[in-house]
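Review session, final week

We close the course with one last complete record, chosen because it touches almost every idea we covered. It is Pleckstrin homology domain-containing family F member 2, a protein from Oxylabes madagascariensis with 249 residues. Go through it on your own first, then we will talk.
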Amino acid sequence: MVDRLANSEANTRRISIVENCFGAAGQPLTIPGRVLIGEGVLTKLCRKKPKARQFFLFNDILVYGNIVIQKKKYNKQHIIPLENVTIDSIQDEGDLRNGWLIKTPTKSFAVYAATATEKSEWMNHINKCVSDLLSKSGKTPSNEHAAVWVPDSEATVCMRCQKAKFTPVNRRHHCRKCGFVVCGPCSEKRFLLPSQSSKPVRICDFCYDLLSTGEMTACQSTRSDSYSQSPKSTLNDVSDDDDDEDSSD
């Protein structure tokens, strides 16, 4: 069905409408073979608080942006190649329901649908698109994913030293490897994580020691353990332009 729609006028028209909604600041989305599978509003758990974002699922990419005028204007366009995506369901907790993680080597975050049915449809369509892409390319699923950041609100003290209290002066920072909220002294070092940046990025002392000795698996498993123990505390994005004041820290 996707192949049949690829060159249809209806599909071309739909993609053109999406392009126009993002305006000149957005990247062109019309390329041969690309099909718009579906679209909708999902709640994205940003650094400070959950926010509504408009998502568009194509057969090869996932696009989302901030809603300026519903169905008419969006900004801050983000494009995620689906070949690098894996998704994991999130258990319902409090007001955060019908959610799943979208994980990639450069960025990982949580989104929530309005209903369980909508969640199921999104996850099924994403998985189908990823499976079809990998089947055509012969590639294997990505096994490297960026950490999901712990929200600012979940940490009143540094998650590494357990001593430094966060204040307007003593700012919160995030380790790019484990996603923990840490103080400045516990995250003074930098390490090159090629999938996330071409320059060395801030990481905590714990992850630096593990990475420096080549024990990357241990570092990753530690992060996974912390997630399973406290799923709510890790549901955050790597950085949203309007939510992440210290994305360079």
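Two points worth writing down before the exam:
The chain is about 25% helix and 25% strand.
The two ends are 46 Å apart (CA to CA).
Good luck, everyone.
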